[in-house]
Amino acid sequence: MKSFNEKVEHLSDTQGREALLGMLRGIEREALRIDEKGHLAQDEHPKALGSALTNSRITTDYSEALLEFITPVNHNIDNLLEGLTQTHAYTVRNLNGQKLWPVSMPCYVGDVANIPVARYGNSNTGKMKTLYRKGLTHRYGALMQIIAGVHFNFSVSNELWQRLYDDKIANGNGNACCSKSITFEDFISESYFGLIRNYRRLVWVLPYLFGSSPALCGSFIKDQEVDFEFEKTGKGTLYLPYATSLRMSDLGYTNKEQDTLNISYNSLPEYLEGVGAAIKMPSKKFAQIGVNVDGEFRQLNSNILQIENEFYAPIRAKRVTKKGEKPSQALARAGVEYIEVRALDVNPFSPVGIDATQVRFLDLFLLHCLLSPSEDTDAEGEAEIAANLKAVVLEGRKPGLTLQRHGQAIGLKEWMHELFAELSTLAVLLDDEDSHAYQLALAHWAEAIDDPDKTLSGRVIHEVVVKGTDHSIWVKQLADDYHAFLTHYPLSENVEKSYVDEAKASLIEQQHIEELPQDTFSEFLKQYFKDVVPAGTFEAK
């Protein structure tokens, strides 16, 4: 098996460089709508933004107030971020004075019973999406569900796959992923799962650099019992001195009920088997909620996972689904098409939640994960992955922090310097004579290795602890500043018209869906889960 440096050397000619640069990316950014006082918006999804069910660029996540902006897939980073910015700009022009909350952790929530669950209309598909979210409310509470994040979708070019595949066939050493009999499609899936395993071993790097939720508004935990020993500023801000991403801690978007699933990432078949078993696995805890109680549905079913999307993971293997197809069915049909990075906090120092230096770092990081050898993970390795991530999430900026690598202690700084040295060879290869964008991005984030104050979480601590600004006041000012920036951001007539046209078309499409003949909702759910959920799950209780 070739080393990372050997693979990079193999790709260092003109054709190899072009194959590497053929990456495709997409971004999904979540943002809460807030009113003029900074409180969570209570009204329905604005009609000017179209149908949350069918609009391809602007939708909602858990709540009516939690917007989700989705970019088209793009080769070019500048075009990708320009499109994301245009979507933000069109949106803020149509919020009737409301603004976007520019951090991951919410504030000014008030009564959690008033958090409006997202609604998707009267079709069975729309009702199912809403019921799924009601189930999340009953299972985990509404507060956890309005934590916002950024998802980064990533794939490499067919030219790169062909180059890597041909090299494997020519240099196969007899193991499964290198066998001359492996198909091109299976090779791609196996390689993506190799990327995923390496990503999970190194996922702690992302909250260290990009985690931006070391502090939060005290109102977020007012009714919760928490184990953290928070420090407090005089104005109600709670924080952990060395934390990076409370969003990724037990306080944030996690699910302890899933800790026993042990879903394997060692191959696509093992992964699909694990996800399938999880969807069928009953939960005594969730059964106590009931499914259909006195004629009212409370959740889709009482299993550990209602649907596959409920499986919380910092990375997912993905394929675009066909109509009516479940995510796992798409993967089983044709293998992995791209991966979704889900370990990113909203960057509060960007009006759109992410910037170009982060995207370029992610390119380098994910290519490194793809091109590096990736052994299977066992139970001991999984425990090490979890422990490293927890340590960085809660104490990532702590001086002298050590992690575990293959059972041996290693300093976080030492490990990161080793990683950045290898990333630098990729950065040089990807840059051309006129642009050093990848090397500059890498150098920018390399400064944060020895100076944790230059991480996003370190910058947040500087604002709310060192400067003594209340977290909620600081974030509200950011919201005001970004609202002004986006309101005045130039949108051409053609660009604005494209958003207006899509909004109108999405509303018409939703109406068309709702006018089609439909089974009863109960029958619809039975048909949807007929090959997944054990019989009797949908009986009234």
UniProtKB/TrEMBL annotation:
Q: Does the keyword Ligase apply?
A: yes
Instruction: Determine if Nucleotide-binding is one of this entry's keywords.
Output: yes
Q: Which reaction does it catalyse?
A: L-cysteine + L-glutamate + ATP = gamma-L-glutamyl-L-cysteine + ADP + phosphate + H(+)
Q: Specify the pathway.
A: Sulfur metabolism; glutathione biosynthesis; glutathione from L-cysteine and L-glutamate: step 1/2
EC assignment: 6.3.2.2
Q: Where on the tree of life does the source sit, at the highest rank?
A: Bacteria
| UniProt keyword list | ATP-binding, Glutathione biosynthesis, Ligase, Nucleotide-binding
One Pfam family this sequence matches = Glu_cys_ligase
UniProt GO molecular function? ligase activity
| All residue ranges annotated as the Glutamate--cysteine ligase domain in the record | 9-392
Family under the similarity heading: Belongs to the glutamate--cysteine ligase type 1 family. Type 1 subfamily.
Instruction: Specify the protein name.
Output: Glutamate--cysteine ligase
| Originating species | Shewanella inventionis
Question: Corresponding gene?
Answer: gshA
